[in-house]
Design a protein that fits this description.
The complex is a heterodimer of chains A (287) and B (297). Chain A has 287 residues and is mostly helical. Chain A contains twelve helices and no strands. The chains are: A mainly alpha (287), B alpha/beta (297).
Chain lengths: 287, 297
C-alpha cells in the first residue's frame, strides 16, 4: 500500500517535471527556428552591398537596403527624442511626486496604452498628420512620432519600477543634508537607478524597432531612394521587408530574408546590451 | 581620543570665522557666524539649541507625540530613550522637519532652533535641514559615489564648486570622524567598499561637512559590532564640542555613557527629562526607574 503510494507520487513528480521541461523547450524553439530559417534563407544575401547600396529597380539583380537601415535608425532617433524624456520624467513623476490616487489612474492609462494595437497608433498619427498638412501626411516625422508615442508608456512603467527600487534611505539622507528635492531626484535617485532606466529605454527601442503596422500609415516607406527631408516618406527595414516579401520577384524575396535577418540581429544586439548592463548592476549590488 | 584632537583644534584655528566651532559656540538667530560673542560655553547654555513647546505630532488620526516640551542644551549630548513605538524617532524627525515626508503628518506646538521658530511659514524645510543634520540607523552612503564624493555631496549639491574648498573641508570632516587615515589612500574607491562601521562614520562625516548646528542621530550604532560601536561613541563625545547632538538609542548603557541629558519617552509622552546621571541613579518617576533598570520595555 505504502510502496504503491510512493511509486504513484514518484510518477506524478516525474510527469510534472517532464511537462514543465517540454513547455520551457517550446519557449526556446521558435527563436531557434526563426534564426535557423533566416540564416538559411537570408545569410547568402547579406553582403557589403546590402548595407551600402540602394535597392535596384525591378529586374536588375543586386543592390541593398542601405536606405531602409538608415531610415530605421532615423526613425528610432526621432522616437527616442520624444519617447525617452517624456517616458523617463513621467516615471519620475509616478515614483517621486504624484499622489497615490492620481498615480493609479496614470498607471492604468499607461498599461492600457501598452496594450493598444500598433495599427491604431498608426491611424491616430495619420489622422493628426492629415489635420496638420494634407501635403505631408506621410513623413519621417510622423513615423518617428508614432514610435516615440509607443515608447512613452513602456519607458514610463520601467522607469517608475527601477526608481521605486532605490531605497528610501538615500532620499532621506539627501534631504537631511538640505539638498533640494529636484537635485536629490536627479543626482541621487536617478543616478542610482541609471542602469535600470537605460535598460528600460533599450527594451522599448527593441520593441518598436520591428513595428511595421504603424509605419504603414506614417513613414510609408520609399522603396528605392534616400530620404533627404524628414517631411517626406522614409523607408524602414520592416516596411522594406513587407514590400519585398509580397512582391513576385525572387531576388526581392532573398533581399527580404536578408533584411529580416539584419533586423532580428539588431534587436538581439539591443537585448544583449540590456543583459550586459543588468548583469553589471547585479555585480555592483553584490559587492 | 588624543589622536582626534589636533585636527579638530587645527580646524578651529584655520577657519576662525567659519562655522562648526563658531556656530555652536555662538548661538544666534541666524546661522551666520557671530565671532563677536566671546564666552563659549556659558553663552551657549543661555539659549537652548533646541526648544520644544507643547509638541504633538499626528499621522492621520493617529497621535504619535502628545504635548512634549523639552529644551536641549547646546554643545551637549541629549539622549532619547524609550520602548519601541514610543515616538522617539518621530520626535527626532520633527526637529528637522523630516517627519513631513509622510504625506498625512501634522504637528501642533512650537520648535525653536537657537531661538528661531523652524515651523514659521517663512522657513523652508531645506534650510532647517542644512542647520540640523541627521545620521540614520542604517548607514546609507550613496552607492554611485566614491568615498570623497559622498563626503562632499552636501556641499556640491548646495552650490560649492571650488575644488580646494571641497578638498579641505572633506579632509577636515574625515579627520573629525577619525576616518582620514583609513581612507586617505583610496578616496576614489566606491563608498560601499568600506566596512559597516566605516560607512557609518562616513555618513557622520557627510553630515558634519555641511557644518550644521545640531546633529540628530537615530540609533547610529545599533547595526554595528561592539568595536565599531565604541568608535562611534568616542566620536560622539568628541563631536559634542563642536555640535549639539541629540541621539535616539535603545541601548541604556550607551545613553548612560555618552549623554549629558536623557529624555524618557513612553507612549508618545515625555515621562521624564533630566541630567543623565540623575536619570540613571535617582529618577523622579517610578516608570523611568522601571525602564532604566530593565523591568519593562
Amino acid at each position: 500500500m505504502d510502496a504503491a503510494n510512493h511509486r504513484m507520487r514518484k510518477f506524478e513528480n516525474g510527469l510534472m517535471q517532464v511537462i514543465t521541461c517540454v513547455c520551457a523547450l517550446l519557449v526556446i524553439t521558435p527563436l531557434l527556428l526563426v534564426f535557423y530559417h533566416l540564416i538559411v534563407e537570408g545569410l547568402g544575401s547579406v553582403n557589403w552591398a546590402f548595407f551600402t547600396q540602394l535597392p535596384k529597380p525591378v529586374g536588375e539583380v543586386g543592390g541593398g537596403m542601405a536606405n531602409a537601415i538608415v531610415g530605421t535608425l532615423t526613425l528610432l532617433a526621432i522616437a527616442s527624442v520624444i519617447g525617452v524624456p517624456v517616458g523617463v520624467f513621467g516615471g519620475v513623476y509616478l515614483s517621486e511626486y504624484g499622489s497615490s490616487r492620481l498615480n493609479g489612474w496614470i498607471r492604468f492609462t499607461a498599461d492600457v496604452l501598452n496594450g493598444v494595437p500598433s495599427i491604431i497608433w498608426g491611424m491616430v498619427v495619420y489622422a493628426l498628420a492629415l489635420s496638420v498638412s494634407a501635403d505631408h501626411t506621410f513623413s519621417a516625422w510622423a513615423g518617428g512620432i508614432v514610435l516615440g508615442m509607443m515608447m512613452v508608456p513602456l519607458i514610463m512603467r520601467t522607469a517608475e519600477e527601477v526608481l521605486l527600487l532605490v531605497p528610501g534611505g538615500y532620499r532621506e539622507a539627501a534631504f537631511a543634508l538640505g539638498i533640494s528635492k529636484w537635485r536629490t531626484i536627479v543626482q541621487i535617485v536617478m543616478r542610482t537607478a541609471l542602469k535600470g532606466i537605460i535598460t528600460g529605454v533599450l527594451l522599448a527601442l527593441a520593441r518598436v524597432a520591428g513595428e511595421t503596422a504603424p509605419l504603414l500609415f506614417t513613414a510609408f516607406g520609399n522603396n528605392l531612394f534616400w530620404n533627404h527631408n524628414l517631411s517626406d516618406p522614409i523607408s524602414a527595414l520592416p516596411l522594406q521587408i513587407f514590400n519585398y516579401a509580397i512582391s513576385p520577384y525572387d531576388d526581392w524575396h532573398r533581399q527580404a530574408w536578408a533584411g529580416a535577418l539584419v533586423l532580428l540581429l539588431m534587436i538581439t544586439a539591443i537585448n544583449v546590451g540590456v543583459r550586459v548592463l543588468t548583469s553589471d548592476r547585479f555585480r555592483q549590488s553584490n559587492r | 581620543m588624543n589622536s582626534l584632537m589636533p585636527p579638530n583644534e587645527e580646524a578651529k584655528r584655520t577657519t576662525a570665522p567659519a562655522k562648526p566651532a563658531a556656530a555652536a559656540a555662538a548661538p544666534t538667530v541666524t546661522p551666520a557666524p557671530a565671532p563677536a560673542v566671546s564666552p563659549a560655553v556659558p553663552a551657549a547654555n543661555a539659549v537652548p539649541a533646541i526648544s520644544v513647546k507643547g509638541l504633538s505630532v499626528f499621522f492621520g488620526r493617529h497621535q504619535v507625540l502628545k504635548n512634549v516640551s523639552l529644551e536641549a542644551k547646546a554643545s551637549a549630548v541629549t539622549a532619547i530613550i524609550g520602548p519601541s513605538g514610543c515616538g522617539k524617532s518621530t520626535f527626532l524627525r520633527s526637529l528637522n522637519r523630516m517627519h513631513e515626508l509622510v504625506p498625512e503628518a501634522r504637528m501642533e506646538g512650537e520648535i525653536r532652533l537657537f531661538g528661531q521658530d523652524i515651523y514659521n511659514r517663512a522657513v523652508e524645510p531645506v534650510i532647517v535641514r542644512r542647520r540640523v543634520g541627521m545620521v540614520f540607523q542604517k548607514s546609507n552612503p550613496f552607492p554611485t559615489m566614491t568615498i570623497a564624493e559622498n563626503v562632499t555631496v552636501g556641499l556640491r549639491l548646495n552650490g560649492v564648486r571650488r575644488r580646494d574648498v571641497l578638498a579641505e573641508r572633506m579632509e577636515r570632516a574625515l579627520r573629525m570622524v577619525a576616518l582620514w587615515d583609513e581612507v586617505k589612500d583610496r578616496l576614489h574607491a566606491p563608498a560601499t567598499s568600506l566596512s559597516g562601521g566605516q560607512q557609518q562614520r562616513l555618513c557622520i562625516a557627510r553630515a558634519i561637512v555641511v557644518q550644521p548646528e545640531v546633529i540628530l542621530m537615530d540609533e547610529p550604532a545599533s547595526a554595528l559590532d561592539p568595536i565599531a560601536t565604541a568608535k562611534v561613541e568616542e566620536l560622539i563625545l568628541d563631536l559634542k564640542h563642536s555640535f549639539t547632538i541629540i541621539i535616539v538609542t535603545h541601548n541604556m548603557q550607551q545613553a548612560a555613557r555618552i549623554s549629558d541629558y536623557t529624555a524618557f519617552f513612553y507612549l508618545g509622552e515625555l515621562v521624564e527629562f533630566d541630567r543623565t546621571a540623575k536619570m540613571f541613579t535617582n529618577p523622579s518617576r517610578k516608570q523611568t526607574e522601571d525602564y532604566v533598570t530593565g523591568r519593562f520595555g
